[in-house]
Design goal:
This protein is an alpha+beta fold and about 210 residues long. Helix content is about 25%, strand content about 15%. The structure holds flavin-adenine dinucleotide (FAD).
Length: about 210
Amino acid sequence: MPSPSNSFVYGRRPYTRELLGDGTGVQFDERGFVKVDHECRTTAAQVWAVGDVVRGPMLAHKGKEEGVMVADLIAGLVSEVNYKVIPSVIYTAPEIAWVGNTEEEVKKSGRAYKVGSFPFMASGRARAMEAPAGFAKVISAVDDDEILGVHIVGAMAGELIAEAVLAMEYSASTEDLQRTIHAHPTLSEALHEAALAADKRAIDFPNR
Ligand SMILES: Cc1cc2nc3c(=O)[nH]c(=O)nc-3n(C[C@H](O)[C@H](O)[C@H](O)COP(=O)(O)OP(=O)(O)OC[C@H]3O[C@@H](n4cnc5c(N)ncnc54)[C@H](O)[C@@H]3O)c2cc1C
């Protein structure tokens, strides 16, 4: 299939017009993305594609990990990208960071869920930093306590989200997060308290 015309545009899309000549065997979808499987194999044998040009969030760290995965796979190693736990960060002031599902997505899925949130206003460290704006929010499944999504707005949110990414990558439960000791006074306590709040066990803020 030849490269697409890219005449059907909305939102961000890869610029793949005339990227490849005819007859390569590499196929594109209707928005111009190179079609790949979950291991970034294109429809042409021995041709791989990674990064913004393939499906998934257009983020540097996503493309980087896909590149590592493809190199590993070509070298005959076992490798994968966990697309469910790719963090997103908006570098505003305060920062906005999230991983996993939004509450709207979980609601739509029909799965019973619980939510815990904790305001930075109640964080001693955030107050000492004169950065009390923001909150941490943990969305978890009721049935097995799986962490489904974490959202943080506030100072250093882009750094704080890494803990949630690691927890989700290791399939930690909300209880695992609750039982993990967080140093005081740190901003990371906000995530800890949000996890506790999901079960109405927050310590530094009233449970509602
Ligand atoms: C303004 C801006 C801010 C961003 N901020 C962030 C951020 O804060 N965090 C984040 O994670 N991501 C951010 N991104 C997205 C990030 O830059 C991309 O996800 C990432 O660069 C994708 O990497 P890539 O290798 O797939 O593509 P690219 O980095 O775009 O690399 C593609 C390369 O291919 C070259 N190329 C194109 N066509 C041809 C051709 N025909 N022949 C040979 N070479 C070609 C290009 O010149 C380019 O060097 C931002 C993007 C923009 C535009």
